[in-house]
Amino acid sequence: MMNYSNIFVKNGLTYQTYRDLIDEKLKAGKTTGEDDSEDMLHYSKMNVHRMTRVDKTVQLTEEFLGVLANVNKKYHLLVISEGWCGDAAQIVPLFDKIVQAAPAHFQLRFVLRDQYPDLIDQHLTNGGRAIPVLLILDENGMVLNKWGPRPALLSPLLTDWKKEDEDMMVVAEKLHGWYAKDKTLSTQQELIELFRGLN
């Protein structure tokens, strides 16, 4: 049986520590995962810029803030991620903004996918270890809900882009172009529905 509370408390990284770890790895010519290839290093470097941009420019919608204002209990947000993941770069800053908006009700921690294969294998997407994955835990460490790895309407688009072009750089450009135009609104709308169920 997976002990989510133990992972959250003992192994979870704060958002700032997660960001710092990615920076430290890059300075050493490494990524957070097991693949330190030039492509993965490139993705990680670009993702640092993407996370910084989302941190600075994106705000939670009024609807989302209203939903968070109605939360009464305390919850733990456990995120499975990696610094090289493009979807994660566009999404995980939102999780930090949720905690900033309701710090009395939410704590946020990150774990790296490749360090916790048993954890991600409990939360596969179509049989794959797709990330990021957000797990909403109650104070006892029970998983109440899960979200990820990307907004639902983006998944079929990504599948089509991969069929059209085998060059992952081209696919990544289309992916990040979509995120830039969407400005996190699709992600926020799905998360609103998730968080609306909390009390």
Helices and strands in order:
Elements: H1 4-11, H2 15-27, H3 38-57, H4 62-69, E1 75-81, H5 86-101, E2 106-112, H6 117-120, E3 133-137, E4 143-147, H7 154-164, H8 168-182, H9 185-196
Parallel strand pairs: 1-2
Antiparallel strand pairs: 1-3, 3-4
What tags apply to this protein structure?
four-stranded mixed β-sheet, alpha+beta, 199 residues, Glutaredoxin, 9 helices, globular
Structural features, described:
- The protein is of the alpha+beta class.
- The chain has a single domain, classed as Glutaredoxin (3-Layer(aba) Sandwich).
- It has nine helices and four strands, in the order H-H-H-H-E-H-E-H-E-E-H-H-H.
- Helix 2 runs antiparallel to helix 3 and helix 7 packs antiparallel against helix 8.
- The longest helix has 20 residues.
- The model has no long low-confidence stretch (mean pLDDT 94).
Order of helices and strands: HHHHEHEHEEHHH
**What is the residue-averaged pLDDT?**
94
Q: What is the domain tally?
A: 1
The geometry reads as: globular
Share of helical residues? 40-55%
Short description:
With 199 residues, this protein is α+β, with helices and mostly antiparallel strands. 54% of the residues lie in helices and 12% in strands. The chain has helices spanning 4-11, 15-27, 38-57, 62-69, 86-101, 117-120, 154-164, 168-182, 185-196, and strands at 75-81, 106-112, 133-137, 143-147.
